[in-house]
Amino acid sequence: MSSFFLNKVKFLNKFTVSPMCQYSSLNGCPSEWHYHHLRNLIETGVGSMVVESTAVSKVGRITKKDLCLYNKKHLYSHKKLIKYLKKLRKIPIILQISHSGRKGSAEIPWIKKNKSLNKFHSWKTWAPSSIQRSKKWPKPKEMTKKDIEKVIDQFTHTAKLAFKAGYDGVEIHMAHGYLIHEFCSPVSNKRKDEYGIKGNNFKFQREVLRSIKKILPKNKIIGARVTGSDHLPQGIKVADCINLIQKLKQDGLDYVCISSGGIIPKTNMKFNKGFRLKMAKKIKEECKIFTRTSGCINDQKTLSLALKKYKLDSLALGRILIRDKYFLLKNKKLKLENELKQYNYCFN
Ligand SMILES: Cc1cc2nc3c(=O)[nH]c(=O)nc-3n(C[C@H](O)[C@H](O)[C@H](O)COP(=O)(O)O)c2cc1C
């Protein structure tokens, strides 16, 4: 499989590691677990990697164990991590940057799934409107314009630190029910001001992107993970996503990764094989932007179908690379044999 450039960044092939939060940081810094986890993933033969959702502020964490990047200690520890990973394989490493919004102040999911912290350990979360995620989640604070400006600055600051740390780009998290997604979705955004849904201006989303663009070094890239569908009758539809991407493209976005779901705990989303491929293909055709997607591309048949029929620019693989480290290398047709040459004879 051949390499390609996105701006000045060289990707070794179409496959990327999908970002997967480990909720295992030490005061926001990568821990030994991250070294183990990311080393395994970088050795799978992927052509690039997106590192897990990283908080731009304390309030913007999902849990108390989130990876963060907003102070000097965080910067130093990310720098060390990147140096380590780049020694293993020289592939682009992108950092996903995020604010949790009303989905923050949660228990660590691998201890208690989908649960908010109790009142003794919780913090007040922020959102476009003061609407709970569900009855079991706390009421967030409705953000003022000043809060919005603050969060834009925080995203920009974190992006700046990410570039300093050696990441090849940043991916703005606009999906999965976190803050920027909350501004996109009519389910969570009931604002009447210019940051509301009416008019589909995507003011907040565009301001975050434009602000980061101002400090984006020439040799780095910027992408976004966006919501193609809320999987709810009253939620975001593909047409809304296309509208958003077209605006972000005007502002200089380099790529999108199409995701979906998560605005509330229970939606109509079904985890079928390759379930976002069709939607992503449509979006790519309409928006003519570098497009990636993810979602249960987890057997060789679905992988071949994804490559042959849907022809996306990139595919993000998550859980399968953890369950089966050599999933990609086992597939001879992909011609990834230059990776881990020492193991070549093992995959015959
Ligand atoms: C443990 C875990 C953590 C995840 N964390 C993130 C994250 O930090 N950011 C994100 O955009 N998606 C996250 N996701 C979603 C994955 O990136 C991916 O899109 C999803 O798992 C579907 O792909 P898969 O079927 O190949 O795993 C996470 C998924 C899992 C299983």
Write the topology of this structure.
Layout: E1 4-6, E2 9-11, E3 15-17, H1 32-42, E4 48-55, H2 72-88, E5 93-98, E6 126-127, E7 141-142, H3 145-165, E8 169-173, H4 179-184, H5 203-215, E9 221-227, H6 238-250, E10 255-259, H7 277-287, E11 290-293, H8 300-310, E12 314-317, H9 319-323
Parallel strand pairs: 3-4, 3-12, 4-5, 5-8, 6-7, 8-9, 9-10, 10-11, 11-12
Antiparallel strand pairs: 1-2
Helix pairs in contact: 1-2, 2-3, 3-5, 6-7
Bound molecules: flavin mononucleotide.
The site of flavin mononucleotide (FMN) has 21 residues, from strand 4 and helix 9.
Overview of this protein structure:
The protein has 348 residues and is an alpha/beta fold. Helix content is 31%, strand content 15%. The protein contains nine helices and twelve strands. The strands form three sheets. The protein has an eight-stranded parallel β-barrel with strand order 3-4-5-8-9-10-11-12, surrounded by five helices. Helix 1 (32-42) runs parallel beside helix 2 and helix 2 (72-88) packs across helix 3 (145-165). The model has no long low-confidence stretch (mean pLDDT 96). The structure holds flavin mononucleotide. The site of flavin mononucleotide has 21 residues, from strand 4 and helix 9.
